[in-house]
């Protein structure tokens, strides 16, 4: 029996649109809008000014906090603005705007480092930090922080997240099929940096070609095992992945390190490999542009800072009248109100749905069917938390572990009364966190 977790759902996956399409290199953006906040933690401070000429890979944002990651120019050209610009989060973010000169000139400081075998663990972590590597699965947690657990926390297992359980998205799938050796090289760097000798690569069984490619790539590397997983959403959630593969349960309010595990996305591993091979920091990523609202869905290698509208144009433009543009997948992605928002390090997909596919539902009273309880992968009581949120009972919501919610959307998806449970619990989490800061 394939490994998995308790709870979860089986939404239509709709990956056929792009799962067999090789990654194409997207055109350079004419105007790259590069936000100084693309990760969890403190935003970067711009280190360039209007009028400066920058080259590809040059640092343009300095990270001055431990939980942060530097940001680099993704195109060569002239800095034409340093100002707040629209961001996929919905709030304008300080950004460096570069007018591309079309030359794609690489910064002189970008050079391959010494080989992985010659590097010390601290040198690997510093290389990852200076390259601005963050989690590529969407969360955007700075990778070097994850590889530096506090004193007293021991790590014995690394898990590579190749599940890609969100419907429609195929960026990680194509990466593992086309560049499996890079995923393994990045994983080996993580293992050496942390001193861990056991690693797993978890992949859902709806990607048999990726499982085969990764199995071929790990041959000869001791301690690395590919684990086929049941196809179920949210199989790629950190806690669900850890439980499925190791049987360990991350405690309430805890982190993977509390059960001696680090989880990194397959794309993160490939980004580390790229730095090891070329010295080029994180300036681009694979993004799936898909959905019924796009004429020609594709997997594109995209420079950070490329406006979403340009990507849709490179996929033939809109197919009919668009109803919704989502950054990410349909379950956890964020709807966008403008096409000027740029691709950032965590943008795994751009999903466009036709207007005819987008429906608004009117919530009805809860019928206490408990489907949300069955579906919740964290084993919460979503309908009860939703009621507490509606009544503004934040203390009680915290007592019932609202902060453990991963906002996967399973509860809202299965609710026959169309109650926006995920949104209500997210509201409760925001209010609880705000009260803690007072």
UniProtKB/TrEMBL annotation:
<keyword id="KW-1278">Translocase</keyword>
<dbReference type="GO" id="GO:0009055">
    <property type="term" value="F:electron transfer activity"/>
</dbReference>
<keyword id="KW-0479">Metal-binding</keyword>
<dbReference type="InterPro" id="IPR026902">
    <property type="entry name" value="RnfC_N"/>
</dbReference>
<dbReference type="Pfam" id="PF01512">
    <property type="entry name" value="Complex1_51K"/>
</dbReference>
<comment type="similarity">
    <text>Belongs to the 4Fe4S bacterial-type ferredoxin family. RnfC subfamily.</text>
</comment>
<keyword id="KW-0813">Transport</keyword>
<feature type="domain" description="4Fe-4S ferredoxin-type">
    <location>
        <begin position="396"/>
        <end position="425"/>
    </location>
</feature>
<dbReference type="InterPro" id="IPR017900">
    <property type="entry name" value="4Fe4S_Fe_S_CS"/>
</dbReference>
<feature type="binding site">
    <location>
        <position position="369"/>
    </location>
    <ligand>
        <name>[4Fe-4S] cluster 1</name>
    </ligand>
</feature>
<comment type="function">
    <text>Part of a membrane-bound complex that couples electron transfer with translocation of ions across the membrane.</text>
</comment>
<dbReference type="InterPro" id="IPR010208">
    <property type="entry name" value="Ion_transpt_RnfC/RsxC"/>
</dbReference>
<keyword id="KW-0411">Iron-sulfur</keyword>
<keyword id="KW-0004">4Fe-4S</keyword>
<dbReference type="InterPro" id="IPR037225">
    <property type="entry name" value="Nuo51_FMN-bd_sf"/>
</dbReference>
<dbReference type="InterPro" id="IPR011538">
    <property type="entry name" value="Nuo51_FMN-bd"/>
</dbReference>
<dbReference type="InterPro" id="IPR019554">
    <property type="entry name" value="Soluble_ligand-bd"/>
</dbReference>
<dbReference type="GO" id="GO:0022900">
    <property type="term" value="P:electron transport chain"/>
</dbReference>
<dbReference type="Pfam" id="PF10531">
    <property type="entry name" value="SLBB"/>
</dbReference>
<feature type="binding site">
    <location>
        <position position="405"/>
    </location>
    <ligand>
        <name>[4Fe-4S] cluster 2</name>
    </ligand>
</feature>
<dbReference type="Pfam" id="PF12838">
    <property type="entry name" value="Fer4_7"/>
</dbReference>
<dbReference type="InterPro" id="IPR017896">
    <property type="entry name" value="4Fe4S_Fe-S-bd"/>
</dbReference>
<keyword id="KW-0677">Repeat</keyword>
<feature type="binding site">
    <location>
        <position position="408"/>
    </location>
    <ligand>
        <name>[4Fe-4S] cluster 2</name>
    </ligand>
</feature>
<dbReference type="GO" id="GO:0051539">
    <property type="term" value="F:4 iron, 4 sulfur cluster binding"/>
</dbReference>
<feature type="domain" description="4Fe-4S ferredoxin-type">
    <location>
        <begin position="357"/>
        <end position="387"/>
    </location>
</feature>
<feature type="binding site">
    <location>
        <position position="372"/>
    </location>
    <ligand>
        <name>[4Fe-4S] cluster 1</name>
    </ligand>
</feature>
<keyword id="KW-1003">Cell membrane</keyword>
<feature type="binding site">
    <location>
        <position position="366"/>
    </location>
    <ligand>
        <name>[4Fe-4S] cluster 1</name>
    </ligand>
</feature>
<feature type="binding site">
    <location>
        <position position="376"/>
    </location>
    <ligand>
        <name>[4Fe-4S] cluster 2</name>
    </ligand>
</feature>
<keyword id="KW-0249">Electron transport</keyword>
<dbReference type="Pfam" id="PF13375">
    <property type="entry name" value="RnfC_N"/>
</dbReference>
<keyword id="KW-0408">Iron</keyword>
<keyword id="KW-0472">Membrane</keyword>
<protein>
    <recommendedName>
        <fullName>Ion-translocating oxidoreductase complex subunit C</fullName>
        <ecNumber>7.-.-.-</ecNumber>
    </recommendedName>
</protein>
<feature type="binding site">
    <location>
        <position position="411"/>
    </location>
    <ligand>
        <name>[4Fe-4S] cluster 2</name>
    </ligand>
</feature>
<dbReference type="GO" id="GO:0046872">
    <property type="term" value="F:metal ion binding"/>
</dbReference>
<comment type="subunit">
    <text>The complex is composed of six subunits: RnfA, RnfB, RnfC, RnfD, RnfE and RnfG.</text>
</comment>
<dbReference type="GO" id="GO:0005886">
    <property type="term" value="C:plasma membrane"/>
</dbReference>
<feature type="binding site">
    <location>
        <position position="415"/>
    </location>
    <ligand>
        <name>[4Fe-4S] cluster 1</name>
    </ligand>
</feature>
